[in-house]
Design brief:
- The protein is elongated and about 70 Å long.
- The longest helix has about 30 residues, at about 80-110.
- The chain starts with a strand and ends in a 16-residue tail after the last helix.
- The protein is an alpha+beta fold.
- It is built from eight helices and ten strands.
- It has a six-stranded antiparallel sheet, with helices on both faces. A two-stranded antiparallel sheet has the order 1-2. The chain has a two-stranded antiparallel sheet with strand order 3-4.
- A hairpin with a 6-residue loop joins strand 8 and strand 9.
Length: about 280
């Protein structure tokens, strides 16, 4: 039985409250999206609301300082107050991302028993921003914080290349080339393009001795609010230990960890429809 408050089931009251909150946020998002002073009718139409409902939400936003009404034109526009909130969020974001990413690295290192790295793209290269050595440290990765690696022959780098359009990939190859590091390195545009298409479909990438003989890695990506690859997590180890069976067994957990950071970075898609959905 539902709890009652003022004769109304609490669950129903919460549902109505949630719907109102969503509509208020929708009004604010539409006003910001349209980016110009708007009539009330325009706001209502863009948000799919009747004018009286739209006025109620616009009024609430105006009282809180997020919306301003020009007394002469009677049109509404968003204020800079939302930027104040944004700056506060950004001020805390780096700490939150760092804390969560370090937790992910520790968990991945323990899960696989190997070294785990986080990297971002910088100047068409993979820049390692954090690393967690494996528990036994038998194989100490040559990757260190601040070191860089090519994109075409590393798991994280190939994930970063999935952001590239065909023309951007051509520019990358023209600028950086596809140097051969081992007999397994992908050194032609056709091979690399086919590999990137496969990675886009499956949502993770592997480096099978393409950068160092005897060493392989598996990598997954976290995505930002636009859906683009933002941060990459990779696990590196000797081929004898980082086997296909081991990778396949731990990929679901690895993908879930990357998805958690994606949500923090503003990714709004569900776990089922993001590019890592095909992790087994």
């Amino acid at each position: 039985m539902f709890a009652m408050q003022n004769g109304t089931p609490v669950e129903k009251k919460l549902t109505r409250s949630n719907q109102s909150s969503e509509k208020l946020l929708l009004v604010l998002e539409k006003m910001a999206e349209l980016g110009q002073p708007l009539r009330l009718q325009d706001i209502a139409q863009s948000a799919g609301l009747n004018p009286s409902t739209a006025l109620r939400f616009v009024g609430a936003l105006e009282r809180r300082g997020y919306v301003y009404q020009d007394p002469q034109t009677q049109r509404y526009c968003t204020t800079m107050k939302i930027c104040v909130l944004s700056n506060r969020v950004l001020a805390n974001m780096n700490n939150n991302v760092r804390d969560l990413s370090r937790s992910i690295l520790r968990n991945l290192s323990c899960l696989f028993g190997e070294a785990a790295c986080m990297s971002v793209e910088q100047d068409m290269q993979a820049l390692y921003t954090d690393i967690q050595d494996g528990p036994d440290q038998i194989l100490r990765s040559t990757r260190r914080i601040g070191s860089i690696a090519p994109l075409h022959c590393t798991g994280a780098g190939k994930l970063m290349l999935t952001n590239y359009s065909s023309a951007e990939l051509d520019h990358y190859i023209e600028s950086k080339g596809l140097p051969r590091f081992t007999s397994r390195t992908l050194c032609t545009r056709e091979e690399l393009a086919a590999e990137l298409e496969n990675i886009r479909r499956q949502g993770y990438a592997c480096d099978n001795e393409e950068c160092e003989l005897g060493v392989r890695c598996v990598a997954v990506a976290s995505r930002d609010d636009t859906g683009r690859v933002s941060h990459c997590f990779s696990v590196t180890g000797p081929c004898a230990r980082l086997t296909d069976d081991k990778i396949q067994a731990h990929l679901p957990t690895m993908c879930d960890m990357a998805y958690r950071l994606s949500r923090l970075l503003g990714y709004s898609g569900s776990r089922a429809d993001w590019p890592g959905a095909e992790c087994p």
